[in-house]
Give the backbone structure.
Amino acid sequence: MENEKQQENLREAARTFTTGENFRIDRYLGCHAGLKEQESGFYFRVWAPRAQEVFLVADFTDWHYGVPLVKNEFGIWEIFSKVAGVGAYYKYRVIQADGTEVFKIDPFAKVMELRPGNAAVVYQEEKRKWRDGLWRGRKKRSNAFQRPLNIYEVHANSWQQHPDGSFLNWQELKEQLIPYVKDLGYTHIEFMPLTEYPLDASWGYQSIGYFSLTSRFGSVSDFQDFVEACHLANIGVFMDWVPGHFCANTDTLPYFDGTAQFEYEDPNRAQNFGWGALNFDLGKPEVQSFLISSLMYWLDTFHLDGIRVDAVSNMLYRDFDQGPWTPNEDGGNENYEGLHFLKKLNAVAHLYQPDVLMIAEESTHQIKITGPLESGALGFDYKWNMGWMNDILRFFEMDPIYRKFNFNLVTFSFMYTFNENYLLPLSHDEVVHGKKSLMHKMWGDRYRQKAQLRNLFTFLMCHPGKKLSFMGNEWGQFLEWKFQEALEWRDLEDDLNQKMLFFSKTLNQLYKDEPALYELDHEAAGLQIIDADNTEETVLSFVRYGKRKKDFLIAVFNFTPVERQAFTVGVPYSGTYQEILNTEKEEFGGTFTKGNPPMTTTGETFKDFPDQLSVLVPAFGALILKPTSIQLKQAEKTKMKGGMRKV
């Protein structure tokens, strides 16, 4: 009776896979320990509906032509092996629809051989007793949108390496990376993809193992230990994930059974010419089950706090790629299947893990990305603000003499910053392939470059939206990122770089300490422009508000090499203010031994503001001012009605 029930459950798993309703199909397909006729062994199951034959070939079959699998009504092939053991290598020999013979890696493998090897590994999952319940419970009770989110983006291969160029393993990363991130005050680590991939140069974005942790840094349990240690240190963990396209290596997913199985049948839609990859057929139910199960596997198995979905635009628009494209049935460029899939993906993720953060790397504005599905959005929690990133970096690369003519590059983002739940990235894509490092992008000599980098980082922290910065940015590494080498840690032997690192640590802590910088990131009430029209002096000022009346900060940015003395800044409340950050302080690498003294308002109005201050704004400097004693009752009468002023 028990065996009949088990068979019924297995059949239901296969059926729901073919209808797109199985969100943990990896518990059925792939390699799993089990019993057959009271004997222990491993079941091997693989989806290849149009294959003529499939054989299991492995080291325990002496890599001969293999043992044949049997296909069921759902296009799934199965075999039970009593001789397979944990750690054994295996592949499938697939006789494809046209009779072509190919060797394929198991798409559902949980462990794969370290490159340049290319076999799947027999693996038996172990039940883990996690110790991060306090972290997860606190996360469930809090509102992520009103909490600090400051992400340290990491490429695990190249953050640090051994002297011989080999990678650190998860234990070594636990011992070195976690204390470093905690000391600097970041709230989360985001890893570039950790799904298995064959070529280091792809950085993980050409995946071959959607259920397989890359073998480069250690085992499944090793990475679980790492994530648990992060949570115990109050650090969250995100991972980049690539559901839009996959590696074109012939021994992996492409045309697995000889037909368009994982990819679109239309070659224009299947081929991703720009990235040399293949696009998933997001409308196929089995592919939906495959990808959503992959996401759920990573969330369940590793307790990840969020996922950054890579290249969302590629899934939304048929003409996103460089090659020829096929219009949809209405003659347009929207990928209806991609739209439906992303909504389904986010719905399932939030149903099973309501506090997971789903983040879209998406660069267009035609489709609402963040927000509830019922509002017509795709259901993501955050969207990378690529427009802000491109504009602000273009501005900082510019000779200051021209900045007053291009001030809109700084102010334009305020026009749309509340249209989505934005995350502001200074990511790996901006410091590679000849684009220069952030430090090297800055105009002028080394001292001025450091000053402007501090200004840029302060603007990042004060602008509405959550934050992300790539490794090495924190001390202003001069050389652009080289994925095959470790960061230039010897830079920190230089005093100016050490001071830049101290500045990043100070700024990160200030961000976490000040609710005005994160509580109302996605509400117009959280921002009030003071002056965005001062193009001649190229100085920007605005207010950031928290939920409480007294939680507000004044931010002032001087984007020129000219010191502004007795500079007028409007304030919403009369009273006294103190400077809590001056980017040109000597301790950060600047020249100021002391900043502005405590300031008292003058009683004069400034634009829409009831009062004003007079401050000294350093050349290329940024200031953050905080009230110490203010007249709230008087201020409530004169405070702006609309919250955010248009620029």
Notes: Residues 637-647 have pLDDT under 50 and may be disordered. The longest strand covers residues 39-47. The chain has 14 helices and 30 strands. The two ends are 72 Å apart (CA to CA).
